[in-house]
Amino acid sequence: MGAVDFTAYQDGTDAAKAFRDAIEEARYQYGNRPYTGTLAEKDDFQVITDTPLSMDDAEALAGRIMSDDRHPVQDKYGPAGAIPVLTDQRTVTVTIPATAQGYRTTEEAALTVLADEGRLLPGETVGYCITGIYSHCPRTGRIRSGDLTVPLQGGPPEHRGWLFFGLASY
After folding, report:
1. In terms of C-beta distances under 8 Å and separation of at least 24 residues, what long-range contacts does 32-36 make, across chains too?
2. What is the number of other CB atoms lying within 10 angstroms of the CB of residue 161?
3. Four-point Cα dihedral 51, 17, 130, 96, nearest 10
4. How many helices (DSSP H) and strands (DSSP E) are in the chain?
5. DSSP string computed for 68-121
6. Contact 165, 8 (CB under 8 A)
7. Closest Cα to residue 51, out of 28, 23, 82, 74?
8. What is the pLDDT of residues 83-116, one digit of tens each?
9. CB neighbours (10 Å) of residue 76?
């Protein structure tokens, strides 16, 4: 069988847990069969740098390493490379308290609760696709209570994930 380059981003600050989660996601996406050409083919990883990089810089470093035939991640039987990634995106869970007036939208509810609780970081805005389970007032249709999963973006960059890369059997 041949081999193909792969990259996979996974949220999480713990490299070992992020690696396991990324393998699980690859197996979910591509199946448990052998020769998927993904991170699912790897048993181990090697941290390339301890310094978190932006996603663009992490991808550029991975590209440079993948062009070096002598690096261990260039072996389809070797470890995956792992680079810590800085991002301004995070996902939080928000519990909407029961209120008399309610909220017109999930975005309004999320922003209000996060601001009231002091959990909204400077510069952060709500990202695309808020999900959750919440109830509406039957008379006004406003959101009154529930739980939301809220993607946020634009805050200060922090280490929140890992870029895994390498060569895998295909």
Report:
1. 34/169, 35/1, 35/169, 35/170, 36/168, 36/170
2. 23
3. -100
4. 3, 9
5. -TTSGGGSTTSPEEEEEEEES-EEEEEEEPP-SS-BSSHHHHHHHHHHHHT-PP
6. yes
7. 82
8. 999 999 999 999 999 876 899 999 999 999 999 9
9. 17
